[in-house]
Amino acid sequence: METGLLEAEIDADAFDRFKEQGQFQMVLAELPFANQGVLLSNKDDKSAKILVLYDASQDCFLQVENENECFGLRSKNFEQSFALHLILESSMSLVSLLGRSGTGKTLLALAAGLHGVLIEQTYSSLVVARPTIPLGRDIGHLPGDVEEKLSPWMFPIFDNLQVLFAKTKAQPHELVEQGIISFTSIAHLRGRNLANKYVLIDEAQNLELHEIKTILTRAAEGTKMVLTGDPEQVDHKQLNQYSNGLVQMIQAFLPYQISGTICLKRCERSHLADLASQIL
Predict the structure, then answer these.
(1) How far apart are CA 131 and CA 143, in angstroms?
(2) Which pTM does this prediction carry?
(3) Of the chain's two ends, which shows fewer C-beta atoms within 10 Å, N or C?
(4) pLDDT of 88 higher than 90
(5) Measured at the alpha carbon of residue 262, what is the angle toward residues 118 and 260, in degrees to the nearest 5?
(6) What percentage of the chain reaches a pLDDT higher than 70?
(7) d(Cα 212, Cα 201) in Å, to the nearest integer?
(8) What's residue 2's pLDDT?
(9) Quick check: 234 and 204 in contact, CB under 8 A?
């Protein structure tokens, strides 16, 4: 499935009119889905670009603010700016970020979550869950309580939190101790009632559809669900690029204004990471 930013060109007069009015109706080569992102450029000045999204409820395109910074993290391209817009938009209860390793999915999702919890105080806490699917050979049984068993699976989350808190006096472990950030397994979400939470499900391409359904039906009023994943890196032995629950869920929600999705294509981690994701 392709859910990246569409690109379109319009003449200078229409471009200026769009910028002035903030909304516009136009016909694209492919039918847009609800909250489809489009990078619109001026035919006479290719450097002039604006981000717009398709509002299915009004059947028109709306200009979106170019979200350049969130919790100290600056977006590095139009895709990341649009991703931040989707996550920060309060009317969208469900947002999915797809993309290869290094495109910034998890980092953007965490930054927006911390912004919503600590700055805007829209949510009471940040809840993070990841599937416990090993890459390569399983290391076997892990000793300890639930928190100790989950710790190795949450190392990537802590890596990203360290980046976000690098320039602040606060430390991630302090927020964990205060209950502002919590980590849980997918299995332990069953039966919960998550109200006014920002919930991040990382590596969601390793979940089956019934598992994602269980997660989404935990959402009470005021909760935002953000799912991130790379359909091309599925570690679950019974799933693949097309059958995983994340892709199926996105396809089911495409017509609904309550959700938004974007596929990030540009790797920003390093040249090595970008090259490896393309040629291996």
Answers:
(1) 18
(2) 0.90
(3) C
(4) yes
(5) 70
(6) 92
(7) 9
(8) 67
(9) no
Structure token pair of residue 80? 């990341």
Mean per-residue pLDDT, 87-95:
95
Tokens of 18: 């769009």
CA angle 129, 139, 176 (to 5 degrees): 30
> CA 245, CA 213: separation in Å to the nearest integer?
9
For tokens 């309580």, what's the residue? Answer: 145
Q: Which amino acid is at 274?
A: D
Would you mind telling me the total number of residues written for the chain in this entry? 280
Three-state DSSP string of the chain: CCCCCEEEEECHHHHHHHHHHCEECCCCCCCCCCCCEEEEEECCEEEEEEEEEEECCCCEEEECCCCCEECCEECCCHHHHHHHHHHHCCCCCEEEEEECCCCCHHHHHHHHHHHHHHHCCCCCEEEEEECCCCCCCCCCCCCCCHHHHHHHHHHHHHHHHHHHCCCCCCCHHHHHHCCCEEEEECHHHCCCCECCEEEEECCHHHCCHHHHHHHHCCECCCCEEEEEECCCCCCCCCCCCCCCHHHHHHHHHCCCCCEEEEEECCCCCCHHHHHHHHHC
